[in-house]
């Protein structure tokens, strides 16, 4: 009877194992037990790769033996790529170490650098010996006949490596999802670059246009035809999803303003880079090295006032600002040196908004403060100057000769000044209860839900031009520093036009814990003793005690 029961138990166990194995082979489930859900893709990311009809190939160059910070980034990259692979069986990945083979090392470095993959040179002196590692924190994504680069490291001129790695880990899902979106999604949204009111020439916004072109269809739109056919101009403008006004310098007529107002009332989005004071650094390039700032009236005061903001006709001066290169000295002894330029605030971003989260400093030139006014529109401050700011009225004579003078820091006490504001909601028409400058078909006094970004400086979209060739936006050729201008503008456009929620992935919070490198260095011997010698000592004591007790037991 006992034998029968034993056989029955064995059969039940075997059948149970077979059933469990069959279920586990057909049902697969992963559980993300991390507090911040760092290994859970958003619905927007999943929907992006769910319907791939061709293989999407990812080449990751962050491979090799790295310092601890980059090993963390390396691990997180592999985790997020694994999650994308689980979401789609059309995603394939190659991990490549471009500097592993000494015979092809230099060739790889040159090829990747020429392709725009700037290496990170990591200098390490923690052991007392200075070593340098060449690291490529980049990936390529290829789909059908297109390939694009994906940055894995968010570099910053003001943050240490650990903080840069932390920000990079938080941005990994968005970095990959954003790249996949450009490859997979057909460009459907249309952007109108406004012309006709003295806006910047295309040469000076070329790098920005090149940046947004993979996402959207671009077209120039002139408001000149408003004078002869305002209704027809409005009807054509409605075909665009977003308008961009890049540093207009000529006033807008009432007809033009009504066209823009009704465009907004019909749900159109807009990005305004406008100025209330006319001044730029080119005005200082004369023998005297001086220029005069004057008020610039674009006739848009009532326009923005109705929507809930006011761009004041003053200039923001900030102690936390970008430098300007000046010739210091006389004759042959003169040298070009960077000198702090209070008219170029380095704006801090709002860490709680998806447009500006983990954003590098944004460089302004001759910016004005923006007031927010009380109405039913939701307002989000995107960029501000530092607390060490002051205001300067117009007209004012500005001289390069005064740059080398030490500023009176006590006068820089007005606190942060708003430089970029996001407006969201149902806008009221500027022309509600007013006589219309021309008859509008289906005039609307209230808009559908829409969005608008107002920036008080047109220069943040302006790239430098050298030998008639546009340079990278946000990169200062003289100082070699990169600023967050391009990323901020691209994020703003994506936010204004994004209906899928992809941009909101940037708000994802991931907490990354790092070891204190200084403490490790100072207590290196102690930690080596605790991790190596102490376990051996404890093991030896245990063995000695075990043998002693064993001999004592059996000797008795």
From TrEMBL:
Record bears the keyword Membrane: yes
InterPro entries referenced in this protein's UniProt entry, alphabetically: ABC_transp_unknown, DUF7088, Motility-assoc_ABC-rel_GldG
The entry's keywords: Membrane, Transmembrane, Transmembrane helix
Signal peptide: none
Regions crossing the membrane: 7-28, 529-549
Annotated DUF7088 domain residues: 35-141
Domain ABC-type uncharacterised transport system span(s) in chain numbering: 189-492
Listed NCBIfam families: GldG (TIGR03521)
Name of the molecule in the record: Gliding motility protein GldG
